[in-house]
Design a protein that fits this description.
single chain; 276 residues; alpha+beta; Aminopeptidase; 7-stranded mixed beta sheet; 3-stranded antiparallel beta sheet; globular; transferase; EC 2.3.1.-
């Protein structure tokens, strides 16, 4: 990671590179790309557009903007060039965002992500310590590229920057290589699993009467979208039912574990959560 430098973007030429990264990362059409000019305007009014650089080359970026709450920002985009993934660039960008926000009195950053994308869940929930309490149905409407084929249902991740949960997650990251840590949530193997899976196919669910349970998602939802779109749609509808029922019953996403071929969210009752 020493080869990468993270800092706010400077000048129109650097902002212009962000357009190409959006298309490389998500396969967006020109109409779906957030243009450089808009990002420049937002950054000048209190937003953040920071980049990870390999020498002069921009390899990833994070983009957030102010909200009606002066102590909260919404992080709309984070992307890394495909050939630069897996070496901790995304984590480094988020840690820079956290430091930048705290220096300005911002204590919470929210963003949306696809709840069925295990790699994103691993970053957002396990590595960064986000919590999730809200499920947004078809939030962006139809999109192209890697998001084509199913409704754009999303989790709303809440990153409470100074909470004990986030501090603990960042300490775990600090104990090992920034791109990975072997520590997992204790007691996962004994947890009830709310949903039933037959091979790769969802097969119903029953919410356990328990303070804590797991929900399984596909091993590789992105691959299902490409190779088995009908099955991907089944998973989308199944996840929508499971998570909306869970949140309505007072549960919240507390953790995420990658266990062999299984991706498991850990849900807990919301009482007593630290949202400092």
């Amino acid at each position: 990671m020493d080869r990468y430098t993270v800092r706010p973007l400077e000048g129109a030429a650097e902002f212009k590179q962000v357009e190409a990264i959006q298309q490389a990362a998500w396969g967006m059409t020109d109409l779906e790309v957030v243009p450089a000019a808009a990002m420049i305007a937002i950054a000048s009014e209190g937003g953040l557009v920071a980049g990870a650089f390999d020498g002069p080359r921009l390899v990833g970026f994070v983009f957030s903007f102010p909200t009606a709450d002066p102590h909260r920002q919404h992080s709309h985009m984070l992307a890394v060039r495909p050939e630069c993934r897996g070496v901790g660039v995304a984590v480094r960008l988020k840690l820079f965002q956290r430091s930048w926000c705290l220096a300005r009195g911002i204590r919470r950053v929210d963003w949306t992500y696809d709840p069925l994308m295990g790699l994103n869940a691993n970053l957002n929930v396990r590595k960064l310590g986000c919590v999730v309490r809200h499920y947004l149905i078809d939030h962006y409407g139809p999109l192209s590229g890697i998001n084509a084929g199913t409704p754009t249902d999303r989790f709303l991740a809440e990153w409470h920057l100074t909470s004990p949960r986030v501090e603990a997650a960042l300490r775990r990251l600090a104990r090992g290589p920034i791109e990975e840590t072997s520590e997992v949530m204790p007691g996962v193997a004994s947890l009830p699993v709310a949903n039933r899976v037959d091979g790769e196919r969802p097969a119903g669910f029953d919410l356990p009467d328990a303070p804590r349970f797991a929900v399984q998602i596909p091993h590789d939802f992105a691959d299902l979208l490409r190779s088995e779109p009908e099955l991907a749609m089944q998973w989308r509808m199944h996840a929508r039912e499971v998570f909306t029922a869970s949140f309505a019953a007072g549960y919240q996403v507390a953790g995420f574990v990658r266990e062999g071929h299984r991706n498991l969210y850990i849900l807990e009752r919301g009482e007593g959560w630290d949202h400092a």
